[in-house]
Amino acid sequence: MEWEKSLLSQCPDCFAPYCECNCQPHLMKRVGSKGLIKLAPYHKEEHYRTVSHAIHSMKRTPRARVFDCCAENLAQPLLKAVCTAEEKTPISHTVIVHLPRSVRNARRYGFDQARELAKALSRKTSYPHLSALKRVGRNREQKKLTVKERQANLRGAFTLTGDVRGCRVILVDDVVTTGAGMAEAIRVLKRGGAAEILPVCVAATLKKRQEPTFPKFS
Length: 218
Description:
- This protein is of the alpha/beta class.
- The chain has helices at residues 2-8, 26-30, 49-60, 64-86, 103-109, 113-125, 147-154, 180-191; strands at residues 40-42, 93-98, 133-135, 158-160, 167-176, 196-205.
- It has eight helices and six strands; from the N terminus they run H-H-E-H-H-E-H-H-E-H-E-E-H-E.
- The protein has a four-stranded parallel β-sheet, sandwiched between helices.
- Helix 4 (64-86) crosses helix 6.
- The longest helix has 23 residues, at 64-86.
- The mean pLDDT is 84.
């Protein structure tokens, strides 16, 4: 019930359900992103404890059923977005690329949660998963940094390791906060010749001082 309620919550900017709106952080808009596909808001409020639990679970333990559940819910809005995009842009093929986890956390937990989510999404949509991005350098922990600090911290953090020329790239991460990581990855993918990029995540952090609205249940 809590999971369904989170999925039905409205975006505080456009008032559409989160799974239907394309609102995104301004850092992503600045690099030409058309929108962000997402399921629910990421918030500390009690109403979102199921979403928060899923995100924390994905970051700490590679439970296949959690990744499969999130991927299954993401597949429908993603396939809809791809079908709409195909009407406008002729593209050779579509691939799923994950936003690499920091080297520090990958070593600490022994896996990359974005990679696991991308692989699960590949199974649900039949689009191939391509490890086209690699994390380079020793970046600071993002959690306590401001928006500008995050942006500076991730500048030059990714390098291209796969061929994405002419491809539609579905760029996957578990949660988007300021969009700094997504924005930097989008820049790298565009320089590599990607024809179109569709950013996708399970949850996105709400803007400060904005609260979501909830559907009323009888």
